[in-house]
Every structure is written in structure tokens, then in C-alpha cells.
Predict the structure.
Amino acid sequence: MARTINPDEYDARYRALLEAAKVCFARKGFHRTSTAEICAELGVSSGSLFHYFPNKKALISAIVEQEGLETAQYLDGLQAQPDLAAALRDFVDLVISLASDASFGRLALEIAAEAARDAEIGALVARNDAELRRRLALLVGEARARGQIAPTSTPAAVAQGIAALIDGIFSRVAMDPQFRPSKLRPVFQQMLAGMLQPSGASP
């Protein structure tokens, strides 16, 4: 009789393998990490890993998809916030916090590098970026409709600007080992305020 798969157990193992892969990719890079090292990180057999992911590319694809889903869920959740200008400031603060995490920054750099090398990974990253900008534009448009901000540009243009700010933070992290995003939080928030033009509020 075939063994019944418990969906909760399957999901938990899937996520655990992804987390182990993230740790290893951030530590040594995508191409220098072996599947054996990922298995050792979690203490599982190679058969267990390959049951979920046939190769390393499948792992990094799943990481990119997970990142996109989590970002989308976070931004969608902001729609219920009473002050969307404050919610957008909180989002930028979250980005600054993530960029200040050395491990997260290295993983982001690995994903960007692989996206440039592999067309399929690149397409996934591009899709995430498009969804990020689309959801940001919705938030900006709603904040403007509520009278909380008064940007001089369209919501799509403001969303593009916020996305560029995020990209710039991570690019600087990659280029300058001494760069600490958290130390420039007031500067980044001023840049955001310049794009949003909050009504009667300051970051």
C-alpha cells in the first residue's frame, strides 16, 4: 500500500529544504554550493532533497517564487492599513532591515547574478519586479485617493521610483562591504517622502 502523504509534513519539509538552501547559497554562492552541502545543512539524505527538487536550479527558482509570493502578500496586506503613507514608509524600513542582513544581501546578489546568466530565472525575477511595481502603484494610487499623499507623478512612476530606490540599496550593499543601510534610514525616508509628498506628515 502506498504511503499517504501528509500535506503539512510535505510543506514543512519543502520549506525547510528551501531555508537550508538559502543558508548555503548565501554562505558559498550558488555555483560553489553542492547538493550534498544542502543536505548536510538540514541533516537529510540526497534522496529526500531530490524528491522535492531535481536540481539546484529548481531550488533557486523556488526561492525566487517564494520571495515574490511573500512580497505580494505583504503589500496586499497593507491595503487594509488606515495610513498608506505610513505603510509605505514601513515597507521601506523593512527593505532597509533586510538589506542590512549580510546573509540576505548575499543571497539577493546570488539571485541577481543567476538571473543574468539564466533566462528562466531571469524571467521569474522580472515577473516579481513587475508585480512589485504593480502593487506599489495600487498602494500609491489608493493613498492619493484618500488624500494622504499628493505626488506630482503618476502612481506607476512613483512605484518605479520606489523600486529603483530598493534596487539601489541592494546594489550599494553588493558593491560596498562597509555600507550599512540602517545608518542612512533618514536619507532613504526623505527620498521616499519626496516621491510621495505626504499630506501634513513627515517620515
The radius of gyration is 19 Å. The mean pLDDT is 92. The chain has two domains: 1-54, 57-196. The CA atoms of residues 65 and 124 lie 7 Å apart.
